[in-house]
Design brief:
Elements lengths: L2 E5 L6 H7 L2 H9 L4 E5 L16 E5 L6 H6 L2 E5 L2 H9 L4 E5 L7 H11 L4 E4 L3 H7 L13 H12 L2
Parallel strand pairs: 1-2, 1-4, 2-3, 4-5, 5-6
């Protein structure tokens, strides 16, 4: 079963949860052949029920000790722009769509998302452009982020964050 795994890490990002569980977003995922959506919702106030998302099988939880199995089973990872979540998805070799929370002040997430995109490791959008991105995304353009080179990632983060 073709699966999308969405993670917000330890944060709260209710706008993303609302956006991805909308009827339009679920239909866009279904049109691309995805049948299952697994949500890790973190500290947010929303914990959608399985029957709340039309067109697609939905599972939602707040936290697990490890996201490794959910990442492994995913055909697409949608993540907030937290460095840890992005690195875990890229390390798992999964296509990654980063959704930037544009409501944050001093938003370093946007810088990270832009850099990952410029290096062809991920696509990125905001909640307001998520639906269009789901409809038009081309995952074939993504290049793998080679594991086992932690200094490269540290350099990448320094560059992305302007350090």
């Amino acid at each position: 079963m073709k699966t999308v795994f969405l993670t917000v890490g330890t944060t709260s990002f209710d706008e993303l949860i609302e956006s991805i569980t909308s009827a339009e977003a679920a239909q866009a995922l279904k049109a691309r052949g995805y049948e299952r959506l697994v949500l890790q919702v973190g500290r947010g106030s929303l914990l959608p029920a399985a029957e709340s998302c039309p067109h697609i099988s939905l599972e939602a939880y707040r936290f697990k000790a490890s996201l490794t199995e959910d990442m492994k089973q995913a055909d697409l990872v949608i993540s907030h722009a937290g460095a840890g979540s992005c690195l875990e998805a890229l390390g798992a070799g999964k296509p990654l769509l980063v959704v930037v929370n544009d409501k944050l002040m001093d938003n370093h997430q946007l810088e990270l998302a832009k850099q990952l995109h410029m290096d062809s490791h991920s696509l990125y959008c905001t909640c307001s452009t998520l639906l269009e991105t789901l409809r038009t995304m081309d995952l074939s353009v993504l290049q793998p982020f080679l594991p086992g080179q932690p200094q490269h990632f540290a350099n990448f983060l320094d560059k992305a964050l302007g350090v």
